[in-house]
Design goal:
Length: 237
């Protein structure tokens, strides 16, 4: 089994065993999107959606299949997941694009190219890989791209306000070791190594301030049980 297959199997095990509360995330995402669509003007054009770090769409695809979108763009840094996402979504009534690429680079390029505004941004468990400065840049770029009345759903892991990254990593690693017995030792090692090396969750208090300065209104739509996973809903201020 190659490295991608091994790491993806570990990720899928986390999802399938609901260890990061993906089921609650999917349900809250669905209700948030559906409520937003109901509140739109009756004569509004079908919304354009961009998914930053779309993954394999295993949980989001059932939601997307029933949404009356105008278009969908799935972007992911890992090219191997894009065929999986396309297969999961299947045939839908709106056009879809599948792009391999870095989400921050895409946001910068899209802002420079002055493409049509995006009505819905979605990102799940991807932005925490960015540095704090990169998160600020992303929020600024996406704010220039969002359509009036648009929606940005940001699902991710976040640190408690004032919590240091090292403290966050330590308690999350303890959580994996003590309460994720569904994963093999190798799978726990994959997840733990990735977390310790690459994860940089935003501080809750700081990121709200940064988002406000970039022109966003922030609302916590869902908080997980472990002081880490959460969903924020951002709208243009």
């Amino acid at each position: 089994m190659d490295l991608f297959a091994q790491q993806w199997a570990s990720y899928r095990a986390v999802v399938e065993h609901n260890l990061m509360e993906h089921q609650a995330v999917a349900a809250t995402t669905a209700s948030t999107l559906e409520n937003w669509l109901v509140a739109r003007p009756a004569d509004a054009q079908p919304p354009r959606m961009v998914d930053l770090g779309c993954g394999d769409l295993a949980l989001l695809a059932p939601v997307l299949k029933r949404l009356p979108l105008g278009s969908y763009t799935g972007l992911d840094l890992t090219a191997e997941v894009l065929p999986l996402a396309q297969q999961a979504l299947g045939t839908v009534a709106y056009p879809c694009r599948w792009l391999e690429g870095d989400l921050l680079r895409w946001a910068r390029d899209a802002a420079d190219e002055q493409e049509e505004p995006v009505d819905i941004f979605h990102s799940a468990f991807a932005i925490h890989h960015l540095s704090d400065q990169e998160k600020q840049t992303l929020l600024q770029c996406l704010r220039t791209r969002i359509a009036p009345g648009g929606l940005f759903i940001w699902v991710d892991v976040f640190r408690e306000a004032g919590e240091a990254r090292d403290a966050y990593v330590k308690r999350y690693l303890q959580r994996i070791a003590s309460s994720w017995p569904q994963l093999s030792a190798q799978q726990q090692e994959h997840v733990s190594s990735h977390l310790a090396s690459y994860d940089n969750p935003a501080d809750r208090g700081t990121i709200e301030t940064i988002a406000s300065a970039a022109g966003w209104q922030w609302r916590w739509a869902w908080n997980g049980a472990h002081r880490a996973e959460a969903m924020a809903v951002l709208t243009p201020a």
